[in-house]
Amino acid sequence: MSASLTPADARFLAMPAATLRDAIAANEAPPTAGVAASLRRAAEVGAGRDGLNSILWSDADAARGEAEALADRLAPAVGERAGRGTGRELLGVPVAIKDNIATLRLPTTCGSRILEGYVSPYEATVVARLRAAGAVVVAKTNMDEFAMGSSTENSAYGPALNPVDRTRVPGGSSGGSAAAVAAGIVRIALGSETGGSVRQPAAFCGIVGVKPTYGRVSRYGLVAFASSLDQVGVFGKTVDDAALAMEIIAGSDTLDATSADLDVPPYRDAALADVPVRPLRAAAGALAPVAAGEAPLAGMVVGRPKEYFPESLDPRVREKCDRALERLRALGAEVRDVSLPHTDLAIPVYYILAPAEASSNLARFDGVRYGLRLGGDGLKAMYEATRSRGFGPEVTRRILLGTYVLSAGYYDAYYRKAQQVRTLVTQDFQDVFASGVHVLFTPTTPTTAFPLGAKSDPYEMYLSDIFTATANLGGVPALSLPIGAVDGLPVGGQIIAPHFAEFDMFKAAFALERALGGEARA
Q: Which CATH number is 7-267 given?
């Protein structure tokens, strides 16, 4: 297929996911329109020496075939629209999937040599739900090996590049998915989060990234890193794209015992001005509905945690956050200073708990059942040869660290103590939200995207997640959206909500996105 984009391709790629869906459903565009444009765009930005390397695996013929097969969904029942529950919510919309989420046909390698060529015999629930809604999977995206990293430089297949500035990282570990959305290959992509791996790359690439409440989205088919922290998240070019995708993938799943059996609100309705903010959890009485044309966030209380605005924060990032908070005030929200006193312990706690769980989860990759297998003189030698060759240095480092903190004599001193502190971090969130705060607003990252190779010290790299890891430890939902730029590089603002209060989170995000307008890129 030619890598040259046509004017029609550019038009389809610029359409919000819901607009493209509606055009296809109304026979104003063929079912293959979006997929063909996506494949051509992928070829255009991925080719050559300076290609983004955001995509690892793709099957253009299969993707086109899937799009062509959608023709039988084009005839809705009389009066029916291509909305929720119709099987046409994402009709013909191309999507990309992070390489640690199981798909049929395309490989699932987790960006690692130890799973090179592995194709899953089953599909993740989130992918199956996207397909059932009419979406077409066009690619699997690059990532830090086994989701361990904050830059996508740890991929066994080479680093992905940031489409905003190709000398810089796209963030990680879901950097390939973020780059694919930012580069205009797709409007929607799936990533995974353990300590900020959706929100941080979303901030670096200037797009929207959502981490749902733990249990809101099924983890079935997500290759485990740290099971008590891992979640599937979504990237969108806009808040609406992300909200649409989250509506599709969220919900209980009998294949995942940790998924919550709760109704999924229509998140896109959060954009409507006449939908009220939910009643305060610690206040008496419900809030009055907000009439169309009035301040859309009237009645919403936004918390500004002092711990997320330390002196070490890049002052230019702080300035963009202060501007965003002023916009929230102008939208009718009350901005209140709050405290999350155990925030400074989040990174050390995360880097005890996550490696501990990883050392257990990754024990299954031993060369016996699937993936890479190297010979050796006996079983132990085979294990050693396979794992030494198959795992990269960052994965090896975390396995060793996790094994150490779980070992006899150190379990109580490290792992048990970290679990106790995690409880305190979770309680901090609960206390603030119980005080009447609906959402929190913070920076997503302490800086803009850093240059490739700039952070060779692992600890310095780990600090990239300093503002995101707390939400994973607490299991609360969080969203990053563009709030400005510094020297042409995107700045992300983070909105954090109580457990299962994604609707409030989206309401604040929709309103802030509209209020910032072009300022979100400047």
A: 3.90.1300.10
